[in-house]
Amino acid sequence: MNDLILQEAQRTISSRRLYAKSENERRYCEINEKIPQIAEINRQLAQTAIKILDTLKEGENVQQRLEVLQRQNLEAQEISAKLLQNYGYPSDYLDMHYTCEQCQDTGYANGGMCDCLKKLFATLAVNKMNEHAQLSLSSFDQFSLEYYRNKTDAQNNDCYTVMESILRACQGYAQKFSANSPSLLFYGNTGLGKTHLSLSIANEVLRKGYDVIYDSIINLLQQVEREHFGREKTEVDTLELLLHVDLLILDDLGTEFDTPFYVSTIYNIINTRINRGLPTIINTNLDLMGIRRRYEERIVSRLFAVYECMHFVGSDIRLMKKLNSAPLV
Ligand SMILES: Nc1ncnc2c1ncn2[C@@H]1O[C@H](COP(=O)(O)OP(=O)(O)O)[C@@H](O)[C@H]1O
Ligand SMILES: [Mg+2]
Ligand SMILES: [Zn+2]
Question: Are residue 189 and residue 300 in the same domain, yes or no?
């Protein structure tokens, strides 16, 4: 997957380079028409370049001639810049204008990938990861509290009231989202709306222009594992994205295999994001006892101390919808 994304990113960068070139040619044509003196200077500059080549071929007094030509060249450029300004153009109007000056839209600078290529790669990778999340199908608008009406949980709490306050909290969270919002832990039985509400948050946060990665923990860990043990290496990897993204949503914690690599990766993600103050939303069907039993102390203590825990209650809405016993809403 990484190679394809990298190729796509490189294609985008090289189209930026082509665009910079064609825009530069367009500006040359415009100026040649409007400022004939500059057209003349440009002709002289072109001749200068040819003369440099001849000088190199002749092989005599190369250094001296090059210096003279260089001086002429600089003078011509100065005159041209002044003329441009006199005609109301910026003095660098005829320079190349790249999207990224650092690599001049080649994608590579200082012997490695340029930041612009890395950034593009990361954005494309995030889009790819969110592709199979049915983002558009889950919004706050499509979340109905009617499914929780007239139900009580094991402690005899009214499910409607509990879920109403969870819904309000999630809406507020999405509205006020910032790069240092708190982390949330949604727990409770299957089919109660944990995925639905976390995708609703994702939608709003994406709309605000933040990067969000949503996926099941199984998919994400498998991807990290493939890259970690695989042969191919790219400079931007999935784990890095998970550690940096503005909002990370890990769905279905507890469904992954219990391997040392997975456990240490989960710890790494949770711990690093806490240290960086970055928000994470984790969904799990495990209850608090189940989390305690399943995970090591250093993970459990971080989840319980730092994450705001929300207990989803009610009965399986997927089932209710299937049985068509859902109230009309
Ligand atoms: N309050 C709700 N109103 C409308 N649809 C809901 C609600 N809660 C859940 N659903 C729908 O029921 C199904 C199961 O919900 P989901 O969010 O996947 O549950 P969980 O993640 O808690 O297992 C999904 O299709 C979801 O869109
Ligand atoms: Mg779910
Ligand atoms: Zn660059």
Answer: yes
Residue 75 and residue 142 in one domain = no
In a domain, residue 125? The reply is: no
Q: For ligand 1, say whether the CB of 210 is within 6 Å of any of its atoms.
A: no
Q: Is residue 197 part of a domain?
A: yes
Average model confidence (pLDDT) across the chain: 89
Residues 85 and 150 in one domain: no
Place of tokens 């199979």: 132
- Identify which of 195, 285, 311 to mutate to test ligand 1's pocket (most ligand atoms within 8 A of the CB): 195
| pLDDT number for residue 65 | 76
The domain that holds 262 is classified in CATH as 3.40.50.300
pLDDT band at 134 (very low <50, low <70, confident <90, very high): low
Mark out the alpha helices in the chain (DSSP H runs): 2-34, 36-58, 62-86, 115-130, 159-175, 194-207, 217-229, 238-244, 260-275, 288-294, 297-306, 317-322
What local confidence, expressed as pLDDT, does residue 324 receive? 66
- Kindly report the protein residue whose alpha carbon is nearest to atom 18 of ligand 1: 195
The tens digit of pLDDT for each residue in 9-66 reads 999 999 999 999 999 999 999 999 999 999 888 888 788 778 777 777 777 777 887 7
Please tell me whether residue 89 adopts helix, strand or coil conformation: coil
Q: Which ligand 1 atom is the nearest neighbour of the CA of 252?
A: 21
Q: In total, how many domains does the chain have?
A: 2
CA of 276 to the centre of ligand 3 (A): 26
Distance of CA 284 to the CA centre of its chain: 25
- Which domain covers residue 109, as residue numbers? 2-113
Indicate whether residue 177 lines ligand 1 (CB < 6 A). Answer: no
Query: Is 257's pLDDT higher than 60?
Result: yes
Instruction: Confirm if 174 and 184 have CB atoms less than 8 A apart.
Output: no
Task: Judge whether 122 lies within some domain.
Answer: no
239 CB less than 6 Å from ligand 1?
A: no
Residue 72 lies in a domain: yes
State in Å: Cα 114 to ligand 1 middle: 42
Q: Which of 113, 141, 165 is the last residue of a domain?
A: 113
Ligand 2 center to residue 206 CA distance, Å?
20
